[in-house]
Automatic annotation (TrEMBL):
It comes from the Bacteria. It holds the Pfam family SET. GO terms for cellular component: chromosome. One of its GO terms (molecular function) is methyltransferase activity. Its main location: cytoplasm. Residues 1-114 form the SET domain. It is found in: Chromosome. The lineage of its organism: Bacteria, Pseudomonadati, Pseudomonadota, Alphaproteobacteria, Hyphomicrobiales. This is SET domain-containing protein. The keyword Transferase applies. Keywords: Chromosome, Methyltransferase, S-adenosyl-L-methionine, Transferase. InterPro entries: SET2_Histone-Lys_MeTrsfase, SET_dom, SET_dom_sf. One of its GO terms (biological process) is methylation. PROSITE patterns: SET.
C-alpha cells in the first residue's frame, strides 16, 4: 500500500527549551516536502471559539476551528518563524505540518502563524525567531532576562 503525502512521517521529534519558551526540534534529518506531524485537537463550537482564551486555536475552515491546547498535540510546540522551514497544508479539514526544505537534526521547526496572530500576539512583545533576532542579539536578551530572574 502506497503511503499518502499527508501521512505523518513518524519522525523523531523533541520538545525542548527554545527562544519563545518551548519548541519542537528535529532529532533526525527530515526531507523536503514531507508531512512531519498533524495538528490535532478538539473541534470547538462557534460559541466556544468566541469565548476561548486559548492561543492554540487553528481555524481550519470558516465553520471549523481546532483547539490544540492539549499536550498530546505535539504540533502545538512548533513556534512562529518569519523564515519558516515548515508550512501548513489543510486537506479534508485536517491540518498537516509539511517541510518546506530539508531540515537538519537539532533544528527547531517553525511556520508562519499569519499576519493576524503575529500582529495580535507577537508584534507587541517582539518576534524572537532567528530572522528577527539574530543569535548574537538573542544572547544579550537571554543574559538580561537571567539577571532579572536572579534579582527577583
Amino acid at each position: 500500500m502506497r503511503k499518502s503525502k499527508f501521512t505523518p512521517g513518524g519522525f523523531d521529534l523533541a520538545v525542548k527549551k527554545a527562544r519563545a519558551g518551548r519548541g519542537l526540534f528535529a532529532q533526525e534529518t527530515i526531507p523536503k516536502g514531507v508531512c512531519i506531524i498533524e495538528y490535532v485537537g478538539r473541534t470547538l463550537t462557534a460559541k466556544e471559539e468566541e469565548t476561548s482564551r486559548s492561543r492554540y486555536l487553528f481555524e481550519v475552515t470558516k465553520k471549523k476551528t481546532i483547539d490544540g491546547w492539549n499536550k498530546r498535540n505535539t504540533a502545538r510546540y512548533i513556534n512562529h518563524s518569519c523564515r519558516p522551514n515548515c508550512e501548513i497544508e489543510i486537506r479534508k479539514k485536517r491540518v498537516f505540518v509539511m517541510s518546506k526544505r530539508k531540515i537538519q537534526p537539532g533544528e527547531e521547526l517553525g511556520y508562519n502563524y499569519g499576519k493576524s496572530y503575529f500582529d495580535s500576539f507577537l508584534k507587541p512583545i517582539g518576534c524572537r525567531c532567528l530572522k528577527c533576532m539574530p543569535e548574537k542579539e538573542w544572547k544579550k536578551v537571554s543574559a538580561k532576562l537571567k539577571r532579572k530572574k536572579k534579582k527577583a
